[in-house]
Amino acid sequence: MTLLEVDGIDVSYGDLQVLWDASMAIAEEDSVVTLVGPNGAGKTTLLRTLSGLLEPSAGTIEILGSDISTRPAEEIVDLGFVHVPEGRNLFDEMTVAENLQMGSYRHRDEFEETHAEVVEMFPVLEERREQKAGTLSGGEQQMLAIGRGLMAQPDILALDEPSGALAPQLAERVFEKIEEISTDVTVLLVEQHVDRALELADRAYLLENGRIAAEGTGSELLQSDHVVEAYLRG
Ligand SMILES: Nc1ncnc2c1ncn2[C@@H]1O[C@H](COP(=O)(O)OP(=O)(O)O)[C@@H](O)[C@H]1O
Ligand SMILES: [Mg+2]
């Protein structure tokens, strides 16, 4: 089965069309599917549409075989698609533990088990469980945002620029964690760090000006003249 199938969607904000005939797919065997592209290309808009926060004016979206084009966001989470938004969107005044708890509302009965898995992956979240999320460092906040997403037991975890605003060393730690997560959960990774994101990708899409400008395996895109010239040189 195809985990995700986006076919020819158009998406607009009012009169401003941002996505044009965009198509992409995640196959069951994919571990990481990457969406790269410059600032303003429409990457976040695409993720928000997949999450049910925006409705396409044309085209179809299927997640795990269900058409989601007109479904509310909660139902899309229930289908197994969980979106960790750009800028993390944590509850700053709540503790780390409370933030993780908020992530698990779908599976309260399995809280202990899932929580144990998440803190095993991110031990810092256990060390800092009573600390308010807003007082964590940028890297810790990103780990918490990802951990909270995992608490919902997704089949597909969509991460919008998880390395954003992090120093290179911390960004690398995040990429290592993504690799680890992707052995269990399919990751849809949106990134501006084109080289690292393509290295991780089984399948990759380049979005430019709201259109899919290239697609292929991660290594195909890494070697494409267009990608090298526009994003990797210099
Ligand atoms: N809420 C909004 N209202 C109007 N225009 C928006 C809104 N959000 C994003 N846009 C516009 O849509 C385009 C794509 O933005 P976005 O999806 O955030 O791109 P990316 O994530 O690739 O940087 C940009 O031109 C941006 O200004
Ligand atoms: Mg964005």
UniProtKB/TrEMBL annotation:
Any GO MF annotation of the entry = ATP hydrolysis activity
Highest taxon, organism lineage: Archaea
List the SMART domains hit by this protein, alphabetically.
Answer: AAA
Regions annotated as coiled coil = none
Extract one GO BP annotation from the record: L-amino acid transport
The UniProt record lists the keyword Transport: yes
Q: Which residues form the signal peptide?
A: none
Q: Which Gene3D superfamilies match?
A: P-loop containing nucleotide triphosphate hydrolases (3.40.50.300)
Claim: Lyase is one of the keywords in the record: no
Q: Which residues form the ABC transporter domain?
A: 4-234
Q: Keywords, A to Z? A: Amino-acid transport, ATP-binding, Nucleotide-binding, Transport
The family this protein is said to belong to: Belongs to the ABC transporter superfamily.
Q: What is this protein called?
A: ABC-type branched-chain amino acid transport system, ATPase component
